[in-house]
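Thread amino acids onto this structure.
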C-alpha cells in the first residue's frame, strides 16, 4: 500500500474528539497527594483544640480512616476486550486480495416498491488479475461496479481495498481514492466536450495537484498526459475535441484519462458497449495489454460473452449473487 493511501485511510478513521462539557470539572490535585475532594481537610474553626504533642522520643502512629477492604484482583484486572466488529474479522488470506466485498446488499425504491438488486455479493479480486463480470441486462452489474468504486454506498455489507474498508469513508476521502488509486471508464466516455483530448486527460492531474501546483508543474504534467495518450494510440489526436474523434478514439481518450494518475485498480463499465465489433476488440486488446505489461488490475462488467472470454476469470451475476 502506498504511503499516501495509508495516510488517507488513517485520517478518515481518526475518531473525532468530543467537545468538553463545561459542567464536568476535574477536582484539583495536591502535588504528590490525593484529590482534595474526599481527601484530608483542614479546619479553620477557632474552637478546635490543637492535637496534643507526642512525647519526646516517640513516633506518632499514622491514622487511616476505616473503609472497606479492596480486592486486589479486582483493582489490577484489565478491562474486558471489546468484541471485534464485522470489518475487523477477516479471513487469514484477506491481505492477498487487492479488492474484496463482504455481503453486499443494494436495493432501489420506486414509491412504495422496493426493488432488490444485489443480495449478499461476495467477490474477491487478486492484484494483477483481469476479472470479467457478466450477466443479463438489469442484473446489477453496473450497480456492483459503482459500489466497488465508492460512487454509491451499499445498504449492507462492506468493500475492502488493499486490506482496508473503503465504503464507509467520508466523501472527501472517497474522492481522493478515485482520483489517485481507482481509475474508471464508462460506456459513454464522459469526456468534457469543450476540452481537447490532452486537456481531458489533464483534468485528474489538475484536481490532484490544485491550481497553483498544477501551473508550476504544467510542463511536466502535460508531458505525462501526452505519453499516456501516445501509449493508447492517440499521440496524433492531442488537440482534437471529442466531437472530432471516433467512438473508439473517445474510449481510448477515456482510458488515458483513467490511467494518467497511475491507479492500482481500473474499473470498466461496458467499455465496448457503444462500439462496433472490430473497435470493441481493439479496446479489449488494449486493456489486455495494460494488464499483462503493467500488471494493472482490471474489473470489467460486460454482457458480451466473447469480450468476457478475454479476461483471466469470468464470474456471473445471477439474481443478485455471484456465481463462479
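Threaded sequence (324 positions):
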Amino acid at each position: 500500500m502506498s504511503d499516501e493511501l495509508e495516510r488517507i485511510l488513517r485520517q478518515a478513521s481518526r475518531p473525532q474528539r468530543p467537545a468538553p462539557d463545561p459542567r464536568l470539572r476535574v477536582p484539583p490535585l495536591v502535588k504528590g497527594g490525593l484529590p482534595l475532594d474526599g481527601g484530608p481537610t483542614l479546619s479553620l474553626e477557632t474552637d478546635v483544640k490543637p492535637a496534643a504533642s507526642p512525647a519526646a522520643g516517640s513516633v506518632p502512629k499514622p491514622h487511616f480512616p476505616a473503609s472497606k477492604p479492596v480486592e486486589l484482583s479486582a483493582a489490577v484486572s484489565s478491562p474486558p476486550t471489546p468484541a471485534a466488529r464485522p470489518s475487523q474479522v477477516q479471513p487469514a488470506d484477506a491481505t492477498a486480495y487487492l479488492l474484496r466485498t463482504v455481503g453486499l446488499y443494494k436495493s432501489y425504491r420506486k414509491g412504495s416498491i422496493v426493488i432488490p438488486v444485489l443480495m449478499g455479493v461476495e467477490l474477491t479480486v487478486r492484484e494483477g488479475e483481469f476479472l470479467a463480470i457478466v450477466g443479463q441486462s438489469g442484473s446489477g452489474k453496473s450497480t456492483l461496479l459503482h459500489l466497488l468504486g465508492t460512487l454509491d454506498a451499499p445498504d449492507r455489507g462492506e468493500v475492502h481495498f488493499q486490506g482496508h474498508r473503503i465504503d464507509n469513508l467520508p466523501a472527501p476521502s472517497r474522492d481522493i481514492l478515485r482520483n489517485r488509486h481507482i481509475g474508471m471508464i464508462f460506456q459513454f466516455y464522459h469526456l468534457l466536450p469543450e476540452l481537447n483530448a490532452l486537456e481531458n486527460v489533464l483534468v485528474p492531474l489538475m484536481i490532484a495537484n490544485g491550481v497553483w501546483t498544477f501551473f508550476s508543474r504544467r510542463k511536466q504534467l502535460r508531458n505525462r498526459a501526452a505519453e499516456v495518450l501516445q501509449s493508447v494510440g492517440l499521440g496524433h489526436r492531442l488537440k482534437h475535441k471529442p466531437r472530432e474523434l471516433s467512438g473508439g478514439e473517445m474510449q481510448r481518450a477515456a482510458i488515458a484519462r483513467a490511467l494518467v494518475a497511475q491507479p492500482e485498480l481500473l474499473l470498466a463499465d461496458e467499455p465496448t458497449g457503444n462500439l462496433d465489433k472490430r473497435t470493441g476488440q481493439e479496446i479489449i486488446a488494449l486493456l489486455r495489454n495494460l494488464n499483462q505489461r503493467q500488471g494493472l488490475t482490471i474489473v470489467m462488467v460486460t454482457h458480451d460473452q466473447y469480450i468476457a472470454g478475454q479476461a483471466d476469470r469470468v464470474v456471473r451475476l445471477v439474481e443478485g449473487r455471484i456465481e463462479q
